[in-house]
Amino acid sequence: MKFIGIIFIGFIGGVCLMTGCNSVPPGTPPKGDIVSQEDMKNTYSSAAAVNYLITSLSTFAVKNIPKDSTVVQKFTAPDKSLNLYPDKVFKSAAAIARFTSVPAGRVGNYRLTSNIKGSEILVWDMALIRVQDNVAVWSETIRIDQGKLE
């Protein structure tokens, strides 16, 4: 039985060695980029964008925002249904970092702003601003490719 196993492993190894060099065409490689690379850094699907911002805001808030702080939400988007994204981020981060929402007419300790603009590729700016001195203590800018699947 060991002999058959050794022969089988030898056969597979030989096949791999013989075919490995045949997968690259002969000649010199072309100069420059073979495929143009678009800068897709910070471009996410809508679900991945929400998850990324939940993680980023929660991580920051747990370390830097006192528990039971109050946050006023100020979300703007050309299509009001897009405000569902920052609302998900706020609710998840608030549950993790233990801060609460206050109505827009009142003043909180912080203001969470969200601005989504664009059409096919959305640019999403989100910032947490300390109301006391109007300083952005956390911010992220990402892009959402609405055609991108998870």
Briefly say what this structure is.
By secondary structure, this protein is an alpha/beta fold. The chain has helices at residues 2-20, 46-64, 84-97, and strands spanning 43-44, 70-76, 100-102, 110-118, 121-130, 135-145. It has 3 helices and 6 strands, in the order H-E-H-E-H-E-E-E-E.
Query: Class of one domain, according to the CATH hierarchy?
Result: Alpha Beta
Largest sheet: 6 strands, mixed
Number of strands: 6
Radius of gyration: 26 Å
Poorly predicted runs = none
In N-to-C order, the SSE pattern is: HEHEHEEEE
The CATH topology of one domain corresponds to Rossmann fold
The secondary structure category is: alpha/beta
Strand arrangement, major sheet: 1-6-5-4-2-3
Figure out the total of helices.
3
Proportion of helical residues = 25-40%
Considering the chains and any ligands shown, give keywords for the structure.
elongated, alpha/beta, 150 residues, six-stranded mixed sheet, Rossmann fold, 35% helix
